[in-house]
Amino acid sequence: MATVQWDSIGGKFNDATQLPSWKAQLSSVQKHIGKSISGATVLELACGTGFYTRKAIEWGARQAIGVDISSAMINNARILSKGEEGAEFYVADCSKPFRMGEFDLVMAFWLLNYADTEAKLLAMWQNLHDNMKPNGGRCIGIVPNWDLLPGIPTAGEAMFGIVVKPLSIIADGIAQFHTTLQTATPFSFISNAHTREQLERTARKAGLLDLRWLTPVDPQVPDVLDFVAFSKAPTFQLFTASRSK
C-alpha cells in the first residue's frame, strides 16, 4: 500500500513544508540535531522527496543519502537536489534488511508509522541500528503522537494543517488512521501509530540504547502557528537513540 499511495502523491508532498505543523517539525529537528551534524555522514530512511536529506547538507553534513520505497518520490528528490554536492538518493524498502554503510546520523522522519505489524516495526528499527556507526552513531526520528488519537476531532477539523481520522486498531498497540494534509493541492494517505511502550520495547530489541523523547521547539512564526496551542497537543513525537556495540 505504501508504494502505491506515495507514487500517486509524488511531488505534491513538497507543499507539506508550508503547513503550520511542519514549521514546528523543522525547528524541532534542527534544534535537536544541533551543530554535531557539521562534517557528518547522514542517512535518511523514508526520505520522500528529500527535504531533510537536502537540509542535512545545508546544515553542514559532508554526505547525505536518502532512501525511500517510492520511485516517484526518489525521482522527485533527484530533480530537486540536482547539482547539490553530497546528496544522493536511492529506492529501498526500509522494512526489509539493507546496509548502506555506517553513518554518524540516521534520520527516520515518518518511517515507523508505516509498520502495520510488530515484526515490520522491529525490522525498521533494525535498519536504523545496522546503518549507524558502532561508536558514536545515533538516530533521530518522528512518529505520530499516539496520545493525541483519542482526542482527534471526528468532523474533519484540521489540526495545524492536518486532518486525521482514526480508522481501527489493527493489532495490539497499533492503530491505523487516515491523514489529509491541507496543502495547496490536498492529498491523503493511510498510516499507523504505535504506543510508546511498543516503540521503546522494539527499539531495545533491535539493539538501540538510550531512546529518549524530545520536546517540540517553537519555530517563532506566530502568524503561522500558535505554538502554545500546538505544544498542548503536538501532532508528532520526536525521538533519539544511539547504537549498541
What can be said about the biggest beta sheet? 7 strands, mixed
How many domain modules?
Answer: 1
- Low-confidence sequence ranges: none
Distance between the termini: 35 Å
Shape: globular
Top CATH class? Alpha Beta
Reported by name, the CATH topology is Rossmann fold
Please state roughly what percent of the residues sit in beta strands, choosing from under 5%, 5-15%, 15-25%, 25-35%, 35-45% or over 45%.
25-35%
Order of helices and strands: HHEHEHEEHEEEEHEHE
Q: What topology, given as strand order, has the largest sheet?
A: 3-2-1-4-5-10-9
CATH architecture tag: 3-Layer(aba) Sandwich
- CATH superfamily placement: Vaccinia Virus protein VP39
Q: Please tally the helical runs, counting DSSP H or I stretches of 4 or more residues.
A: 7
Q: Class by helix and strand content? A: alpha/beta
Rounded radius of gyration (Å): 17 Å
Kindly state the number of beta strands: 10
Return the average pLDDT rounded to an integer. Answer: 91
Helix content: 25-40%
Keywords: Methyltransferase, Transferase
InterPro entries: Methyltransf_25, SAM-dependent_MTases_sf
Pfam families: Methyltransf_25
Protein name: Methyltransferase domain-containing protein
Please, could you describe this protein's structure?
With 245 residues, the protein is an alpha/beta fold. It has one domain: Vaccinia Virus protein VP39 (Rossmann fold), CATH 3.40.50.150. The protein has 7 helices and 10 strands. The strands form 2 sheets. Strands 3-2-1-4-5-10-9 form a 7-stranded mixed beta sheet, sandwiched between helices. A 3-stranded antiparallel beta sheet has the order 6-7-8. It is globular, with a radius of gyration of 17 Å. The model has no long low-confidence stretch (mean pLDDT 91).
